[in-house]
Design brief:
about 190 residues; alpha/beta; globular
Length: about 190
């Protein structure tokens, strides 16, 4: 607990940072540790190291990238929510929010933030997630809301069948691996 002179103690929330890129982790850790109510309890760069760190430091919040080698991070989030249902998860990704945010939220993440977002949006996202709210950008929220107004539930607009948003999570993972240069044998 951190204590300022003349103030009541503030419990710092423990955050585990997971990303494949060391410099990105370093910058994110520095930013998070500068927040008065947060402390980074660990970092990881893969699914196995994430599982070890979760067991070691018992974080309140996991900030995770969607790309950890060839691993399917959406499936990993689903598994984490079964193993540790109280763990809050914020996905911090460079992958297009309009395509991946819903998948991540359905898997059990509490929020989705683009890596190109300004610093203050990271603080806003974390604050919201720690308060039990879901977080997506205002732009995505408005897009989804407008789309919901324009269509009836269960009704698919003509021409939507071929859109990437309609791929299943597994199909999206395979699509992603193909885009990374892996061939069908390696993907299988």
């Amino acid at each position: 607990m951190a204590r300022s002179v003349g103030q009541t103690p503030v419990e710092k929330k423990r955050v585990l940072v997971v990303d494949a890129f060391p410099m990105l982790r370093y910058g994110l850790i520095a930013f998070l540790n500068a927040q008065p109510n947060l402390v980074v309890c660990g970092e990881a760069d893969s699914i196995p190291s994430t599982l070890i760190k979760i067991a070691e430091c018992k974080p309140h919040l996991l900030v995770i990238g969607l790309r950890l080698g060839a691993a399917d991070c959406v499936e990993f989030i689903k598994a984490l929510k079964v193993q540790t249902p109280g763990l809050l998860i914020l996905v911090y990704s460079g992958f297009e929010e309009s395509i991946f945010a819903m998948r991540a939220l359905r898997a059990g993440a509490c929020g989705y933030l683009m890596k190109r977002a300004p610093r203050d949006e990271m603080a806003t996202a974390i604050s919201g997630v720690l308060c039990g709210e879901l977080y997506v950008s205002r732009e995505l929220a408005m897009h989804v809301f407008k789309e919901a107004l324009a269509t009836q539930p269960g009704f698919r607009l003509p021409g939507r069948a071929a859109r990437i948003e309609n791929l299943s999570d597994r199909e999206m993972h395979v699509f992603h691996l193909l885009g990374s240069g892996l061939g069908p044998k390696k993907i299988a």
